[in-house]
Design goal:
The chain is of the alpha/beta class. The chain has a nine-stranded mixed sheet, sandwiched between helices. A two-stranded antiparallel sheet has the order 4-5. It starts with 12 loop residues before the first strand and ends in a 13-residue tail after the last helix.
Length: about 260
Amino acid sequence: MEEQYICEKGDKSTVVVQDMPMELKDDPTLMFGLASVGLIGPIIAETLIKQIDDMKQIGFVASDLLPPIAVFHNAELMHPFRLYYTRKYNIILGIAEVPFQVESAYNDLAKTLFNWALSDDINAKEIITFQGIPQKGMIDEFPVYYAAEENSIDKFKQIGIEKIDKGIITGPGATLVNNALNNNIQPIVLFTPVYKIATPEGAASIIEVLNEIFGMDIDTEELIEKGREIKKRMKALADKAQEYRKNQLAGSQQGTPYSLYQ
């Protein structure tokens, strides 16, 4: 008996396809850059959107559970959760620049996305999400790790990416992975260390892996340079904080809390 996979649409979210400028190839890859710790998802997605010539917006995801936030780039107002497609690499890319109001909202979102992904119009074969691993202190290197089903492992072995043997995935990525497993779409999660703030260097490391998997040539130098600047600022602030603590311990009145930010 042939297995059938049915994922009912969420109650509070909808995929709206406005413009499909090109015919989709068979078995596209879904890729979602969702706002979470380190913001690597939106950074990766934005970089791909800017640098892939035929990456075009095809629609957006509307949801009652999105927060009351609007976004704009170069004075152009945009929906906070947009969908793009590149026929060259056969990738449907979603970018969510704001987090949902409550964690449970991602369950409704995932149902809607997979209901669409399983439709005859899309029939996606795999989904790739990104997960930051929060670290304390300065991060010197940003290695990339993966977790996937057994039939996806070879592609990572070929490019020398190490797996994560055991762990849990939390947040929006977890709902996408669980729905993929329930609906016979191969889930892939790429991990890298991140700060609690935006971590462009971590995003750059993952993009380099995507370059190898999809044969892309996305330039990451700008992201690496931004990461260096963030490190400089973090180090300068840490040095000022250490100097202030030393002054306090010494009983000096030279340092004030306000001097940390001067």
